[in-house]
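Methods, example record. To illustrate the input and output format used throughout this study, we show the complete record for TOTE conflict system primase domain-containing protein. The sequence lines were provided to the predictor; the line carrying structure tokens was produced by it.
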Amino acid sequence: MDINEQLQASQKECESLRRENEQLKHALAEREKQLKLERTRQRISLFKHLFKGRSDIFPVRWVASDGRTGYSPAKNAQEQYLTLNDQVIYDHLSGKHTIGIYPVLTDDTCFFLSIDFDKEHWQKDALAFVDTCETRCCSFI
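The corresponding predicted structure is encoded as:
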């Protein structure tokens, strides 16, 4: 094989490797998209597991022009309550807006409590709460 044939063979191999490289980059990008989507689904699932509340309604945080803040039920333009769905949770987790949860269900049960321990003996109170949870076989985070 003379030098010109070797050059052509090398150029052909180089072009083949470039195409393969582009295919691999595309496959990697697609896989990264799939993994990101799966991680997002897992985070939403974890949120829904830890903070199980009403799904027919949820509060959204608002800020008034005078600086006051609060939460009110989320509504659409027709003043109908919005339902809590995965997109709303995703928007919350990604910082697009802040939502709350109505933990008391329509049958007056709940799956979680949010407790604020403060003042002088907050650590002792928190430990007493943990002991009570363990005694009653309730999970806590």
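Annotations derived from this record:
The two ends are 72 Å apart (CA to CA).
The first strand starts at residue 59 and ends at 63.
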